[in-house]
Structure formats: structure tokens, C-alpha cells
């Protein structure tokens, strides 16, 4: 049964809102669409009980579109959103006429229409009522990634049947999916081999916060933006891997290993001239910072986080212990820019850790050519995923992962070297 929280803070609907446009038929359904129609990656947003005209939902659609997606917000409620002022039709009556099973069936032609127009990766995000529609799509192999925001009507049995990577963004104050239920969802997902997942409970927020926040409430806006960033990151990770053709069972395990908003916090002031070592234009084909004795038989490769090689003090101290240290610029002069709020998803699509691990192999080969007999690697946040990839293919003798991101449990299972992992709690 629907909770009163499902209906709290109703939006003022605006049929003309948003930067996109309303089309009369997309897969047979009236819809709001936004973004580049030729994009190969699409996201379907499924509304809560207030429907596709909610201003904040359209705002979300436009922001997702600005990250490179074609976004569709279908009107699965057919112009009949819940009206809290109508006392003759309470939510218990309304919900009987708008079952999520109906939305699920109507979503299939929408997804088919996306594929017909050339889309190769489809993600779906659902809010409250819409989360039930999305989990049904995830159970039926209809989508490549699923995101549920403060879900309603979703059960543990639903989660057991999920067949694609999934992110669940829950609220601390939620009677429909309280934190203890969300944690049950997480336990089920953790026990499922091959299904990437990301589960997060946002402190101090209530059910519906992602789409029904008040613009004048700075804390609420910040939490909603954080949830949006997590959603985009999940879809980006899955779209990138789908685009790269990773279709084997082992590779599917990595999908939806997403970067949290923590990855982008406290950006450093970068200094290309810093450190006591040397900048070289070509070390194994990469621009790099190097420190330590070039004649050392032991070498360490440091792989940066999203903010590029700002590891020079660390490199210098490691070099003092007798190592030759290399800090390659695997970001190719393009670190993450925190002043671009739409950047996380786009940046991750352009900086795939798996691709960086391939670029790292010539760096390691260059170390061996100069006589290094022992090579370790340490990776920070984004860089930890690069190091894991190197460890899986016997490229290094030791690995250190510092506050890692983008990792799956199966990554660690395939480790072939001595490993150390540092984390905070």
C-alpha cells in the first residue's frame, strides 16, 4: 500500500516546462524528450505519482541530456497524475488504476523505439512509483542499467530477479523503503554473482527528496544533485562498457561500478612544475613525472585519481626509500574539472580505467627495459581500478589500492599479486 510520503510535497505541474520538447508519440506514448537524438546512449526516466510534467523531473532530464544522453520521460500516467486535493480519489484508489505492471508493459515499445533509432545502451531511472516499473524492466533484460530512487512497492523478491547492473538511492526517512529494507536489497545484490550494484542511503532526507525538493532549501537541493550525479555516473559506467563491447559474463560484473560524489570533493591546486624530480615527455609513450635513482632495480608506478598527477610529494618520499618512481599522465592533460556540474558522467566516459591499463603496459615494459626487476603499482580512487586491471594480468608484482573506486568484488577475486587496500569509515 502507498504511504502518505508518496504524496507529500506535490509539485506544481508545468506541461510547457523544460529545455526539451513534448512529442505526441514515442513508442506509442506521449513523452518529454531532451538531448541529442542521434546519441547511442539513452536514459528513460519514469516519474513518481505526479507524472511527467513535474518541473524537477524535467530539470533532471535536461541535466542528464547535457551529459550526452538522449532522454525520454514517458507519460505512463496518460495525463492522469495523482491529485491530492481530490478527496474522492485517494491514493489507494488512484493506485489501482495505475499499476506499475501497466507501466512496465508500456515501457517496452518505448525501449524498442530507442533501439530502432540506433541506441545501443538504454538505462532507466525510476522515482517512487516509477522505481517499480524500472525494477520490472531490470528483471526482464530490457535495459542495460537501472537506478531506483526512494523506491515504492519494490520487494526483496524483485531484487533477487534483477538481471542488469543497478543503483539504489534510498532515504534515511522513508516508510516505503526504510534503510533496513534497502540494506536487505544490498545483501541480496551482494550475493548475486555477476550483477554490479551501488547502494546508498542519503542521511537526513525523506522519501521523494530527489524530485520533490524545494529550490529554496539549499541542503535538499545539494542532496538531490548528489543523487543525480550518482545516477549519471552509474549510467555512464554501464554505457561506456556496453559501447566497448564487453559482453562476456566476467566483464558484465564490472558494470555499474560507479564513482561516488566523494571522488570529486576537495580538488587540489595542480602544479605542473612541482616536485623535486623531472618531467619527461615520453616514458613508455606517456608524459610522466619521475623521481629517484634511474639505476634502481625496484620501481613503483603511481596512478592518480581524477585530478591528475598531483602525487609528487608522495613520489619523492617513495623515491627516498630506494625506488625509481613513475607518475604517468594517464589523463593526458585532461583532469576532472569540478566547476562543471554536468562533468562526472561525461568525464568518466572519456577516461576509462580499462583503457588506461592498456596504456600503462608500455610504461611497465619501459621500466623492465631499463633493468627494473620488481615493479609495484599504487592507485588512488580512479587510479585503483587501473592498478587492479594490471594486477589481473600479471603486469606487476605488488598492488596498493587507496580509497578505491569503480571496483567490483570479482576484481579482487582475480588478483594475482600481493595486494594492500586502504579505506576510510
Automatic annotation (TrEMBL):
<protein>
    <recommendedName>
        <fullName>Dienelactone hydrolase domain-containing protein</fullName>
    </recommendedName>
</protein>
<dbReference type="GO" id="GO:0016787">
    <property type="term" value="F:hydrolase activity"/>
</dbReference>
<feature type="domain" description="Dienelactone hydrolase">
    <location>
        <begin position="287"/>
        <end position="407"/>
    </location>
</feature>
<feature type="domain" description="Dienelactone hydrolase">
    <location>
        <begin position="29"/>
        <end position="232"/>
    </location>
</feature>
<dbReference type="InterPro" id="IPR002925">
    <property type="entry name" value="Dienelactn_hydro"/>
</dbReference>
<dbReference type="InterPro" id="IPR029058">
    <property type="entry name" value="AB_hydrolase_fold"/>
</dbReference>
<dbReference type="Pfam" id="PF01738">
    <property type="entry name" value="DLH"/>
</dbReference>
Amino acid at each position: 500500500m502507498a504511504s502518505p510520503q508518496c504524496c507529500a510535497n506535490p509539485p506544481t505541474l508545468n506541461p510547457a516546462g523544460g529545455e526539451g520538447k513534448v512529442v505526441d508519440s514515442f513508442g506509442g506514448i506521449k513523452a518529454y524528450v531532451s538531448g541529442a537524438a542521434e546519441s547511442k546512449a539513452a536514459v528513460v526516466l519514469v516519474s513518481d505519482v505526479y507524472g511527467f510534467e513535474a518541473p524537477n523531473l524535467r530539470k533532471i532530464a535536461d541535466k542528464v541530456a547535457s551529459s550526452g544522453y538522449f532522454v525520454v520521460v514517458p507519460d505512463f500516467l496518460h495525463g492522469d497524475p495523482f491529485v491530492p486535493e481530490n478527496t474522492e480519489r485517494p491514493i489507494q484508489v488512484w493506485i489501482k488504476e495505475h499499476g506499475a505492471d501497466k507501466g512496465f508493459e508500456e515501457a517496452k515499445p518505448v525501449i524498442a523505439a530507442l533501439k530502432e533509432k540506433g541506441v545501443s545502451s538504454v538505462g532507466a531511472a525510476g522515482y517512487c512509483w516509477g522505481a517499480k516499473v524500472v525494477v520490472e524492466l531490470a528483471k526482464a533484460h530490457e535495459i542495460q542499467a537501472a537506478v531506483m530512487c526512494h523506491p515504492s512497492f519494490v520487494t526483496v523478491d524483485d531484487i533477487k530477479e534483477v538481471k542488469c547492473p543497478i543503483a539504489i538511492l534510498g532515504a534515511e526517512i522513508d516508510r516505503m523503503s526504510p534503510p533496513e529494507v534497502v540494506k536487505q536489497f544490498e545483501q541480496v545484490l551482494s550475493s548475486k554473482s555477476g550483477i554490479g550494484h551501488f547502494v546508498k542511503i542519503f542521511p537526513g532526507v525523506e522519501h521523494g527528496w530527489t524530485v520533490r525538493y524545494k529550490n529554496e532549501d539549499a541542503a535538499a537541493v545539494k542532496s538531490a544533485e548528489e543523487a543525480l550525479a550518482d545516477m549519471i555516473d552509474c549510467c555512464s559506467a554501464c554505457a561506456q562498457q556496453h559501447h566497448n563491447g564487453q559482453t562476456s559474463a566476467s566483464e558484465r560484473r564490472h558494470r555499474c561500478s560507479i564513482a561516488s560524489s566523494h571522488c570529486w570533493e576537495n580538488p587540489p591546486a595542480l602544479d605542473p612544475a612541482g616536485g623535486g624530480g623531472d618531467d619527461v615527455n615520453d616514458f613508455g609513450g606517456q608524459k610522466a613525472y619521475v623521481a629517484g635513482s634511474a639505476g634502481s632495480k625496484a620501481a613503483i608506478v603511481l596512478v592518480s585519481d581524477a585530478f591528475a598527477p598531483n602525487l609528487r610529494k608522495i613520489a619523492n618520499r617513495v623515491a627516498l626509500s630506494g625506488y625509481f618512481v613513475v607518475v604517468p599522465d594517464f589523463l593526458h592533460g585532461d583532469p576532472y574539472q569540478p566547476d562543471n556540474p554536468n562533468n562526472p558522467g561525461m568525464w568518466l566516459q572519456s577516461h576509462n580505467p580499462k583503457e588506461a591499463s592498456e596504456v600503462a603496459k608500455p610504461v611497465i615494459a619501459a621500466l623492465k627495459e631499463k633493468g627494473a626487476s620488481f615493479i609495484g603499482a599504487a592507485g588512488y580512487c580512479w587510479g585503483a581500478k587501473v592498478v587492479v586491471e594490471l594486477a589481473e594480468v600479471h603486469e606487476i608484482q605488488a598492488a596498493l589500492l587507496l580509497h578505491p573506486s569503480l571496483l567490483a568484488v570479482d576484481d579482487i577475486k582475480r588478483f594475482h599479486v600481493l595486494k594492500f587496500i586502504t579505506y576510510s569509515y
